[in-house]
């Protein structure tokens, strides 16, 4: 049996703090990948100390990425506490990220809090300009949250704008934009939520094959969040139980992909899969490794640790 840990720690405290600062506070011009090789306890301590209610909202979103990579439940409690202590915080950005981090990284109690907080605080603040952003949070809140309250709010705007859509091009565009959210984005979010709600309670061996399909974009349900979540659940099985069955499942899916001629597999998907296989200490097929070595960006997927 082989098991895996999240990262091989090689940075000292000062180096780790610098890497975290650059990622969290570098803005849109900072590093695009979560820094590896830092002791998870140090990562938790850094976020708890440096992410406050006054920190810019972009850093809150970056903190979610860090918490996903390092699996930091104490960070979930921290963001929940920030919202509970600061109920009058303006806007929807920080409340949305706090709810997502609590539900995605914390336990069931945190997830139930996030679902209630979403309906009580976030949805009432929803305006057409932020519908898409608020809607994007829902998969992270599954299975305890539903889309019902937001759907009602979106529908009310669709009906209101339908009354003025024929008055001019601007009115028609405004109506069409919210109608698209209602007809496309909302059903899509519900499908992702249903998939996560189905897979989450299953035993790891029973869901492994489908998680691999989701992670490698071979499943009808796709999207950044659900693919990352699927990868995290596979990594969790590898850490808690056994890495070899997970690696073997991914290797088999990659072999089927490479054998497929039409359409050919994308380099992104192959790279994503082989990175996972290497991390899981399973020897990749030489054809798979060659494909990754030819990829223009071999570090494009954030979830798996760099080779030691």
Give start-end ranges of low-pLDDT stretches. none
Cα-to-Cα separation, first versus last residue: 19 Å
Helix content class? 55-70%
Which descriptor suits the 3D outline?
globular
Report the C-alpha radius of gyration, rounded: 21 Å
Mean pLDDT over the full residue set: 90
Beta-strand share of residues: under 5%
Number of helices: 15
Instruction: Output the helix-strand order.
Output: HHHHHHHHHHHHHHH
What class would the helix/strand composition place it in? mainly alpha
- Counting DSSP E segments of at least 2 residues, the number of strands comes to 0
Tell me the major beta sheet: none
Describe the structure.
Helix 2 runs antiparallel to helix 3. The relative contact order is 0.09. The chain has 308 residues and is an all-alpha fold. It has a domain of 107 residues. The longest helix is centred in the middle third of the chain and has 31 residues. It has 15 helices and no strands. The two termini are 19 Å apart.
Please sum up the structure shown.
The protein is mostly helical and 308 residues long. Helix content is 66%, strand content 0%. It has helices spanning 13-25, 40-50, 57-70, 73-85, 93-105, 108-122, 131-136, 138-141, 148-162, 169-199, 204-215, 224-240, 243-259, 267-279, 286-293.
